[in-house]
Automatic annotation (TrEMBL):
Matches recorded under Gene3D superfamilies: HAD superfamily/HAD-like, Putative phosphatase, domain 2
Gene Ontology molecular function: any one: phosphonoacetaldehyde hydrolase activity
Annotated keywords: Hydrolase, Magnesium, Metal-binding, Schiff base
Requisite cofactors: Mg(2+)
Organism in which the protein naturally occurs: Cytobacillus stercorigallinarum
Protein name per the record: Phosphonoacetaldehyde hydrolase
C-alpha cells in the first residue's frame, strides 16, 4: 500500500514555542522604536515568512504604510526594511533560547510516526543563525527532525515559495510529493505546502494563528476554547488547508486516513 513517507513540520508555534511568541514582541518593539505602534494582530499576520520578508509585508499593510509615511515623510524603502531587520535579528537571537520548549504532544507524536517508518523533515521562517540556537536546545528537550532547511538554503526564497520543502524531499529521498504531509501553524505554512503540492495540515492549539500562550489558553472556558479553535480552523481552511488538527496527538490517526486516499483504498471502498 502506498503511504505517507514524510511529515514536514514548521518550528515555532508548531513543534516548539507554544503560541509562537519569540518573534512577536520583537516585531512590535522595532516598529515602536521607529515611531510606529503596531498591533499584535498586525505583527502576527505574515508569521511563517522569512523574517525580513515579514517586515516588508508589515510595512506594506495599508495602515502601517500610511503611519510610516506620516512619521517619516515618505513611503518606506528597501533601506528601511533592511534597517529594521538589522535591529530585529540581534534582538531575536538574544531571546530565542527561552522559546525552545516542545509543544505538548510533539515529542510523543514524532516518536509514534518514526515507529511507523515516517521520516521527519522541517522548514522555518527563521534563518540558519537563528536555528543554530533553536535546534540543539530543542534536541536536549526531546525534539529533533531528521533534517531542516531555512531560506538561507534556497537563495532567500522562503515561504510561501515551496523550495524549502523540496530540499527536504531530496534529503529524505521521498518518491513523490503525494506521499508528504506539511504541518504548520500559520497561513504561510499552508501556502508553502499547497505550492509544493503536498498535503497540508494546520495545527490549531498552540498556533500563531490562534495567538494564545499556554496559560491564556488554559484559562479559557470550554465555550471560549471552542470559539477560538473554530476561528483558527476556519482561517486554515479558508487558506486552502486539506485538514486541520486540534493538537499534534491527532496527527498519526489523520495520516492513517490520508494513507487510504494515497493508496486509493478509500476510493475503491466508495465504488463498492
Amino acid at each position: 500500500m502506498k503511504k505517507i513517507e514524510a511529515v514536514i513540520f514548521d518550528w515555532a508555534g508548531t513543534t516548539v514555542d507554544f503560541g509562537c511568541f519569540a518573534p512577536v514582541n520583537v516585531f512590535i518593539d522595532i516598529f515602536k522604536d521607529a515611531g510606529i505602534e503596531v498591533t499584535i494582530a498586525e505583527a502576527r499576520e505574515p508569521m511563517g515568512m522569512l523574517k525580513i520578508d515579514h517586515i516588508r509585508a508589515m510595512l506594506s499593510m495599508h495602515r502601517i504604510g500610511c503611519l510610516w509615511e506620516e512619521q517619516h515623510g515618505k513611503p518606506f524603502t528597501e533601506s528601511d526594511v533592511e534597517r529594521l531587520y538589522s535591529k530585529f535579528e540581534p534582538a531575536l537571537l538574544q531571546s530565542l533560547a527561552h522559546f525552545t520548549d516542545p509543544i505538548p504532544g510533539v515529542v510523543e507524536t514524532v516518536k509514534e510516526l518514526r515507529a511507523d517508518g515516517v521520516k521527519i523533515g522541517s522548514t522555518t521562517g527563521y534563518t540558519s543563525s537563528m536555528m543554530d540556537i533553536v535546534v540543539p536546545l530543542a534536541k536536549e528537550k526531546g525534539y529533533t527532525p531528521d533534517c531542516y532547511f531555512t531560506a538561507d538554503d534556497t537563495d532567500s526564497y522562503g515561504r510561501p515559495y515551496p523550495f524549502m520543502i523540496f530540499k527536504n524531499l531530496q534529503a529524505l529521498k521521498i518518491s513523490s510529493v503525494k506521499n508528504v504531509v506539511k504541518v504548520g501553524d500559520t497561513i504561510s505554512d499552508i501556502k508553502e505546502g499547497a505550492q509544493a503540492g503536498v498535503w497540508t495540515v494546520g495545527v490549531i492549539v498552540g498556533s500563531s494563528e490562534m495567538g494564545l500562550s499556554i496559560n491564556e489558553f488554559n484559562k479559557l472556558s470550554g465555550e471560549e476554547r471552542l470559539k477560538e479553535m473554530e476561528r483558527t480552523k476556519e482561517a486554515f481552511i479558508s487558506a486552502g488547508a486539506d485538514f486541520t488538527i486540534e493538537t499534534m496527538t491527532e496527527l498519526p490517526s489523520l495520516i492513517e486516513t490520508i494513507n487510504l486516499q494515497v493508496s486509493g483504498e478509500e476510493r475503491e471502498a466508495i465504488e463498492k
